[in-house]
Design goal:
The complex is a heterodimer of chains A (375) and B (212). Chain A has nine helices and 21 strands. Chain A is of the alpha+beta class and 375 residues long. In chain A, the strands form four sheets. In chain A, strands 7-8-9-3-10-11 form a six-stranded mixed sheet, sandwiched between helices. In chain A, a hairpin with a 2-residue loop joins strand 1 and strand 2. Chain B has a single domain, classed as MetI-like (MetI-like fold, Orthogonal Bundle), CATH 1.10.3720.10. The radius of gyration of chain B is 19 Å and the shape is globular. Classes of the chains: A alpha+beta (375), B mainly alpha (212). Chains A and B meet through strand 7 of A and helix 6 and helix 7 of B.
């Protein structure tokens, strides 16, 4: 599939240096990364609100900016719909006037018709004459979206569209927004610093860090194969750890960590074969660590891979799951402060195993659940 | 009432010159911007007589602007009631410009950016978005400018003189009355001007409170 969106930007502003290049097919591209990574700056360049020092922006074959050939379509003529962080609704205008703001060139009747259609589509009927301050957070978000969609944009930009909302509403609107964006089929670029949001809303995720792209991949690939340790940390993955390679083959990687010999699945497609004794980074998702039940006899090392012993040194209740901090019964400093591994268990498991009073456990990790991060 | 006429005209001139000036200072980057800001603000800090002196240098019969005008037409603005308007305008301008500039700056830039992406030029955005949202701050600035114009004394005395019935505004009349021992007339004018100032401050505060 050909790319609908090609972005290459180089922009130097005092104290910040943006230099990124990525492309995306149809659907939603999410710019994900910590605050101050250059995500919003990228959106402003795409919209023509900031002119980069150099680069090229192409949307569906239409060149919006190209420093080499001197093309720079002004913001007014780009037909880019922009949903601002905090929405930036015109406070002195009603819902209808806000939605219709970009339609000034249409005859009055057509403008009213188009605004009404967008208002209907976004479920804002009945609120036409309200002012932004009289709307709820979710309604404001939809007005902002409607105002951007009314101009029939070639590209839709959304800057943290959910950050102004309360948590429960956030989840509901996230799925609603996902459905709407899929339905529209307009190429869209969305900025967020929340990985769950990035994963739920994006088809492709472009990971930003300090003005650079550190990985650009379809969302599932990113989830299971972060390109590096730093990407894994930016994604907020827990249990990102470091060991020492013992042996690497195209199928398996064996390494030593905290006195244990662990085995992980290697990905033949990546052909990552680090030399013996070299450092290696990996991560273990907390929900993929298995506690061994004590009422079913001793653990069988041939059946339970990567078997280890540890003590629960702390725990936190996350409502539906417990997060346990486990320290291995091995000599040396724990890997993560007071503990070696974070393990997540559902409430039910926590209660059945009576973890609140039984603190010593054996646990195992399937080799497919240890993810090696290329250096 | 000469004073009211002078103050109203000065306020109108302030609106026409000061509002676009405040917008430009708040939103545009252009060479000489800092200098312009300085020039507009100066009358706020300088003794009014100094400002008046500069105005004579500019508009007097031998002034940079007034000189050629006098040569051509034999008419000079100095010692006419127009001079009182000019003096009041210049003295009130910093109050309006500073208040209006702050009001323009308080408008969220994302609102203007949104207008750009929706097809509005910079000027149309200023008129349709920035100006309406800065309205209360600008009105508060105009009220202050009006009050300043009404109470103008020093620069007016320098440029317009103190000619009874012609250029003697209320503050000048108060001065004359005190000098000539007409205490009752002076007191009356003082009370009127004080009351008017109180009304103006309350009005400006109300507008300012609504602006936020």
């Amino acid at each position: 599939m050909s790319d609908r969106l090609e972005v290459a930007l180089s922009l130097q502003v005092p104290g910040f240096d943006l230099d990124v290049s990525w492309s995306a097919g149809g659907g939603v591209a999410v710019l994900f990364g910590p605050s101050g990574a250059g995500k919003t700056l990228t959106l402003q360049c795409l919209a023509g609100l900031i002119t980069p020092n150099a680069g090229r922006i192409v949307v569906d074959g239409r060149v919006l900016f190209d420093s080499a050939s001197g093309v720079n379509v002004p913001a007014q003529a780009r037909r880019v719909g922009y949903v601002f962080q905090g929405y930036a609704l015109f406070p002195h205008l009603t819902v209808t006037e806000n939605v219709g703001f970009g339609l000034r060139d249409l005859p009055r009747a057509r403008r009213a018709e188009r605004a009404a259609a967008v208002i209907e589509r976004l479920g804002l009927a009945g609120l036409e004459h309200r002012y932004p301050r009289e709307l709820s957070g979710g309604q404001r978000q939809r007005v902002a979206l409607g105002r951007a969609l009314a101009i029939d944009p070639a590209l839709l930009l959304l800057d943290e569209p959910l950050s102004a909302l309360d948590a429960p509403l956030r989840r509901a609107l996230r799925d609603e927004l996902r459905a709407l964006l899929t339905d529209l089929g307009t190429a869209a670029v969305l900025v967020t610093h929340d990985f769950t949001e990035a994963y739920r809303l994006g088809d492709r995720i472009v990971v930003y860090d300090a003005g650079r792209v550190v990985q650009s991949a379809p969302r599932s690939e990113l989830l299971w194969q972060p390109a590096s340790e730093s990407v894994a940390r930016i994604m907020g993955i827990r249990n990102v750890l470091r060991g020492t390679v013992v042996k690497a083959t195209p199928d398996r990687i064996q390494f030593r960590w905290r006195g244990q010999l662990l085995e992980a699945v290697n990905s033949p497609s990546r052909s990552y074969l680090p030399a013996a004794d070299s450092p290696i980074a990996f991560f273990i998702r907390p929900e993929y660590v298995r506690l061994i039940r004590k009422d079913r006899g001793p653990a069988d090392p041939s059946h339970h891979m990567n078997l280890m012993d540890g003590v629960v040194v702390g725990e936190e209740d996350f409502g539906t799951t417990w997060s346990l901090r486990i320290r291995l019964t091995a000599a040396g400093e724990p890997a993560q402060g007071d503990h070696d591994l974070e393990v997540e268990v559902p409430h039910l498991v926590y209660e059945i195993l009576e973890i609140d009073r039984d603190r010593r456990w054996q646990f195992s990790i399937h080799r497919g659940s240890i993810h090696v991060l290329p250096a | 009432m000469l004073s009211l006429r002078v103050a109203i005209l000065a306020t109108v001139l302030n609106a026409l010159i000061g509002v676009p000036l405040a917008w430009a200072l708040a939103r545009r980057r252009f060479p000489g911007r800092a200098l312009l800001d300085l020039l507009v603000t100066m009358p706020l800090i300088l003794p009014p007589t100094v400002t008046g002196y500069y105005l004579i240098v500019l508009f007097g019969r031998r002034g940079w602007l007034g000189g050629p005008l006098y040569q051509m037409t034999g008419w000079s603005i100095a010692f006419t009631w127009y001079a009182a308007v000019v003096a009041a305008t210049i003295m009130a301008l910093p109050l309006l410009v500073r208040t209006a500039k702050a009001a323009f700056e308080s408008v969220d830039r994302d609102l203007e950016r949104a207008a750009f992406t929706l097809g509005r030029s910079e000027l149309r955005t200023a008129v349709e978005v920035t100006l309406p949202l800065a309205r209360n701050g600008i009105l508060a600035g105009l009220v202050l400018a009006f009050a300043r114009a009404l109470g103008e004394f020093g620069a007016t005395l320098m440029l317009a003189g103190n000619i009874p019935g012609k250029t003697a505004t209320v503050p000048l009349a108060i001065y004359t009355a005190v000098q000539t021992g007409e205490d009752a007339a002076a007191l009356l004018l003082v009370v009127v001007l004080s009351a008017l100032s109180c009304v103006v401050i309350v009005a400006a505060n109300r507008l300012g409170a609504r602006a936020t």
